[in-house]
Structures are given as C-alpha cells and as structure tokens.
Amino acid sequence: MAQENTEEFYARLKEQLEESTEWPSNYLYKFIVPTNEKKIADIHTIFDNTGAVIESKQSKKGKYTSISITVNLKNADAVIEKYKEVGTIEGVISL
Hints:
Blueprint: H1 3-20, E1 25-34, H2 37-46, E2 53-58, E3 64-73, H3 76-86, E4 93-94
C-alpha cells in the first residue's frame, strides 16, 4: 500500500472507530500470515502485556495461519498503533 493510501486508510478507520465504538472497548484483530514460527511469534510479541486473547488456526494444507486477537484498548489510536506495528511484519494480511 502506498504511504498516502495508508494514511488515508488509517484516518478513515479512526473516524469509523470513534463513531461506532465507546472507548475503552474490546477490539478484534484478524490476520493471515504465512505459517512461519518467527512471524507468528512476532505478532504475539506485539500483543504481549496487553491481556490479549490470541487464537491461531492453520489452513488445511498448513501453508497459512489465521490469527484472531481480542484485546481491550483505550481508544482508536491504540487500535491503529497495533495495526501499524503488525504491518511491519512481511507477508501479514490484515482483515
């Protein structure tokens, strides 16, 4: 995603989150990542010390892993911050 499109996306996401959610609130992240222990561990590390509930499930052939993370966050900026952190891991798709 180009930098400008990324910033537009996050600005729109923040606006939607602020309009639709009362903060603090639980937020559900969903990611698809190539099955790779390091990448999965990196995602877990980003959510360490947040009290997050993390569930993982491999695809039928084991090539990909879906990761669902439910975490209580204080505001829309905190949600976006985590998306940006996970976005630094190559190959991760945010749903």
